[in-house]
Amino acid sequence: FGENPYSDTAVTALPVATSDTAELLHYAVQCGETLYQPGYHFSKAGVLLLNLVPDRQIQTHLFDKRDREQYR
User: Fold this and answer.
1) 27, 28, 42, 48: which has the fewest Cβ within 10 Å?
2) Buried (b) or exposed (e) across 29-50, using 16+ Cβ within 10 A?
3) What pLDDT is attached to residue 2?
């Protein structure tokens, strides 16, 4: 609240489905960095995860270089 409120959103699509917390945090921080504006303080933030599927039903990407089997 204040004289000059600032509000914005950021959306990102993951290249492949993942349950790796470090990878999810990487993309969340990346979105947060795009939202930063000097002179404004964050008062609240939220993260929505959409299109969740069981990890055994994940469609992999042909050119994904990450070994995802180690995270299962």
Assistant:
1) 48
2) eeeeeeeeeeeeeeeeeeeeee
3) 63
Q: For residue 19, give every residue at least 6 positions away whose Cβ sits within 8 Å of its Cβ, in sequence order, or none.
A: 55, 71
Averages of pLDDT over runs of 10 residues in the chain (72 residues) are: 78 84 90 88 81 72 67 52
Please name which of 41, 40, 68, 66 lies closest in space to residue 55, comparing C-alpha atoms.
Answer: 68
CA distances from 17 to 10, 20, 33, 40 (A): 19, 9, 22, 33
- pTM value surpassing 0.70: no
